[in-house]
Design goal:
The chain has 181 residues and is an alpha/beta fold. The protein has six helices and nine strands, in the order βββααβββαβαβαβα. The longest helix has 11 residues, at 42-52.
């Protein structure tokens, strides 16, 4: 994993990167995550993608409580050729205090994740170490520039590319369950 080397700076693949500003999301009220509508079909979406790519359904997918920030950080993501997320895609302003695009993960109180806020933000994605041929974001508006700050496709996309993916599938609209599958 990338290591934070100083405030506002980090190291990606052992190359220091200096950020002008590292947005903080600790001010986001994680109770707001509980207000997001449930997405009961996303587990089926992930299982179908896993089966299509011959992934190990017992070890390679993270659902429910296992879909936490800590799980993502601990996972050997550099070993996977396809990484997929089926969740809520959030743009700045979707939650109070959210100032950068993010993917919603399991709320910390449900996942028992004391170190996370339930969001995989653009800044946190920069810190991942991927070696993926393809990242799939089966989430609403992951390619849109709407919202305060308008940093969605350039923000999330750029973050995943810097983290080590070679191709990215995003959506420019709300994702409807049947067509997403």
């Amino acid at each position: 994993m990338a290591e934070v080397v100083s405030r506002g700076g980090l190291s990606l693949r052992n190359v220091p990167v200096r950020l002008h500003s590292v947005p903080q999301t600790r001010s986001v009220d994680t109770a707001d995550l509980g207000l997001l509508p449930r997405l009961p079909d996303t587990a089926d979406d992930i299982r179908a993608m896993a089966a299509a790519t011959r992934a190990d359904l017992n070890h390679d997918i993270f659902l429910g409580k296992a879909a936490s920030e800590s799980s993502i950080r601990r996972a050997p993501l550099g070993d996977y050729r396809v990484v997929a997320f089926a969740t809520h895609g959030l743009v700045p302003g979707d939650l109070d205090g959210l100032v950068e695009p993010a993917l919603a993960l399991t709320a910390p109180r449900i996942a028992g994740d004391e170190d996370g806020d339930g969001l995989l933000t653009m800044g946190e994605i920069f810190e991942l170490e991927l070696n993926a041929d393809w990242v799939v974001l089966s989430a609403c508006n992951t390619g849109t520039g709407a919202g305060a700050g308008a940093e969605a496709v350039s923000g999330l996309g750029r973050a995943f590319f810097y983290a080590g993916t070679r191709a990215l599938l995003v959506s420019n609209w709300p994702v409807e369950t049947s067509s997403a599958r």
